[in-house]
Amino acid sequence: MKVSVVIPAHNEEKGIAHTLRAILAQDYPDYEVIVVDNASSDRTREVAAGFPVIVVRESRKGLLWARERGRKEAKGDIIANIDADCVPDTDWLSRGVRHFTNDRLGTISAISGPYDYHDAKWFFRNFSLLTQKYIYRTVSIILQLPFIKKGAVLIGGNNMIRASVLRKTNGYNTSLTFYGEDTDTAVRVANYGRVIFSPKLIMKTSARRFHNEGIITLEAKYLYHFFKHIFARKNTDILPR
User: Fold this and answer.
1) Mean pLDDT, residues 194-223 taken together
2) Does domain 3-237 have CATH number 3.40.50.300?
């Protein structure tokens, strides 16, 4: 299965090279990397262009506009989403794709896993990782039970989705700017198959947003938007745009 790795990047000239070196070192044999320069005012595009990747421009600022542009450029059977501050292990793609190749009935629509905030303090880093591994996974299973069907848990910068499923949802919901985008996507793709949250599909990423906004403030925002998108409307109301 061919994989298209989509990386939205807004003013990421300082860190994008580190992410690209990591994603280009994958042991998976068939993939492309698409960097979406999302209205950057720095040298993000020039830095990315120095690597063997596809670089495209999306002038409409917003994470979902960037993801959608990348999706439309993609040629893969699987769309893999990471952020510009992520550092995947060399077997990240192969571990994720294995779920799809072993899924002979095609019942899996997406796979996701936890973030490892590698530059955070020890307690927060490990507490967050354990919470995601066990609580997020359990919540995702519960949300997908036949008598509940309220979506799933999907980590925005650590997921792989069947391209065919994203076409059925008519792509990403570009009316969203940032918060809640991963939950909205999870609700959409869960209509077309199982969303697997694997504790083993770990993605190293930066805790810089927590450093900037504070752990309590940011966690409150994430939780609010998670419940807002899970419970604000019925799953069957999520229709293609």
Assistant:
1) 88
2) no
